[in-house]
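Thread title: Can someone regenerate the structure for this chain?

I was given the following input by a collaborator and told the matching structure tokens would be attached. They weren't. Posting the sequence so someone can regenerate them.
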Amino acid sequence: MQPTVKILRGDSEEEIWSQLQEDVKDDIPFVDNYEVVVKQQDTTVQISIEIDFGGGFESGFESTTFVSQLYLAKPFHFLLQREGFLVEVGKLLGMEDVEIGDLEFDERVRIKTNDVDRIKQVLHGQENKTFIQSWESYELSLSSDTDDPHILVFKLQLEEAIVNPTELRTYYHVFRSLLKEIDA
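Best answer:
Regenerated them for you:
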């Protein structure tokens, strides 16, 4: 039997995080999977934290994922990863490696996109860029997950379990801030 996904609703990040703090107390429960859907104003973000300890010859893994779906009139795709992070990535329609003109960010983050001007607009905030370039193993992407190229999935996949609610809130804040820029 699948556990019920908790839904948190609120008009502000403070209201949402007050509910999350009450739900998890000091740390996310140390279980296989924690999942919550956050409905803040006009956005919905699904947060999943997964921990698999492995066993036998398996080494286990952990991840934290933020996902939101949106509709864009003009299809826009991108993928951000840590520069030097070895991952096989198939080129999506018309996506190319780009730089945004921020030397430190461009040295640390690999960007693939089909719209250079739009990704520069999304990443214009220094606070978000500073936080993103500090991440280790991740993929931040906007891609189509259906036959309709206008329905897009915005996703942040981290290869670590973020179990501290304060740290999780920082990731959520940046994710939602970028989501608002994409949807502007």
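Residues 85-94 have pLDDT under 50 and may be disordered.
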